[in-house]
Amino acid sequence: MRTLQSSMPPTGAKGRLDPACGTCRRKCRKCDRTRPNCLRCISKGLTCEGYPLSFKIYDGRATTRKRDRRAVQQHALEPAATASIEETSPTTSTHSNDVNSQGSPPARLQEAMRSIRNTGVDGAPVEADIEEVQHLLTYYETTICTVLPVPTANVPNPFSEYILPLAYRDTGLLNAVLGLTACHIATRDARPNGSMGIAAVQHRLAAIRSLSSLLLKEECFGLSDTEEEIALAIVLTLVLHDICDCGKSMHGAHLNGVAFLCSRIANSSRCQNPCKLFLVTALTWFDLLRGFSGAEKLAFPSDTRRFVAETAGIALNTLVGCPPDIFSIIGQTLSAGKKFWNGELNVEDFQTILDQLLPQLRTWDPSKGPYPSDDREWTILADAYRHAAILRIWRFPDTWVIPCSDERIRASVTAILDASAAIPWHSPYFKRLLFPLFVAGADTDSPHQQRYVSLCIDHIRESTGFTYESLYELLNKTWDDRSRSDGKLNVPWFEYTCSAHLERQHDYLFF
User: Is the pTM of this model over 0.85?
Assistant: First the structure.
């Protein structure tokens, strides 16, 4: 088991605190002096400007030297927790080539392990057990990769086919994968402060540091195609870690940090490989999901969503279950909602846009497809997402006006619950009903419907191993306040995610 080491430099006569990073000095705030990048800056989604005087490099021994311009360039070119990256396409390699039938770790894993030992959290050397890492990777492939997507014949599992080969080539992504896996194991461990919980935090911090270095390199010199994939894969894995841990993404810093990168890929004239297409699709969906709770949180531009809807239909269905047409309409709804929230649209123009989108949803035929396979569950999922989109439109422009007792609200809530009843609980498609079920549960005042939603979510939680704590938190707050209301106005769940009276604004995500 690895041990967490202190990141604070020595103090006293023989040791003095190094100066704060450039960003913290400019903002006149306390810096934690974490090397090579300040974690305060990282946690706020800022670019750490680095340290002007000196820095430490750990390669089994500690050395100190003056940080000149060449050192800054070298730091950007060689992320502290990133192994060497090959320029061959990661989608051409498969995991079966990396691990033999006896399950012994591949050569790349051994190289990555040496890098983990030499560049641990805060740059300090850490102890790493290769058997533990191999156990986590096996768990990732056999469990995590199974519960995340909907398994479909002739469609590769993106988490094993794309993420895992990249993780063997880059230590930052490897740490992100290990952190997610350790977190998933820890959620099933009743013991507080267990070893997996500690490992999850350590690997996560190392992955964040590596991501910071990649983004710094992007800002200074640009990234190669493979490095772009690695950066996007780290962010996606960190977001999934947030979902597995508590369902809250702190300030949405990770998604905000790569919005520009996804937009650049979407606007590129080049044909994107399946790995990069999957990564952009997944991140764009999570941005849309957080925008569902508050349109002002939407960060990805409309051209990125258009790119996903036009080119990634099968990937979007396999990953989420939401058809591209419904995805596009939700995006248009939230984009207009953001403009209305920012004062760029008046209420009349906003209502006109909503009145144009609502008939498209009402007349949309789920049977038209196309879908990844002929399974009827795809059309049932599509109809559930269609009604979730209808419910969101009814909540604009004023989320308080229409009560849950309104027949328009009840019709869509009932349609979503009927869809969930049409898919067996043991079906792998059932877990993709989580988002529509939450929307229906948050928009009903019926106790028996609330109870049914809770039972369905409980089953999804048990089958996937994700706790969905924040989801239960939102539903329980909404139901409690609604039970105390007179029923004449709605009690919107958005008030618990994006209200002006909230002290801290987080992204609530579930998958």
Answer: no
CB 183 within 8 A of CB 199: no
Residue 369 pLDDT? 77
Structure tokens at 38: 């300040």
Strands (E), 131-210: none
Predicted pLDDT of residue 106: 54
Rounded to an integer, what distance in angstroms lies between the CA atom of residue 438 and that of residue 456?
A: 10
Q: Which residue segment(s) compose the domain that 187 sits in?
A: 90-281
Measure the CA–CA gap between 282 and 300, rounded to whole angstroms: 12
Q: Are residues 214 and 334 in the same domain?
A: no
89: β partners: none
Domain edge (last residue) among 281, 299, 317 = 281
Residues 394 and 307 in one domain: yes
394, 433 contact by CB (below 8 A): no
| The residue to which tokens 């810093």 are assigned | 253
- Residue 176 CA to residue 140 CA, distance in Å, equals 11
Which residues have C-beta within 8 Å of that of residue 97, sequence separation ≥ 6? none
Domain final residue, candidates 220, 251, 281: 281
207: phi then psi, degrees, rounded to nearest 5: -65, -40
Distance of alpha carbon 244 from alpha carbon 181, whole angstroms: 9
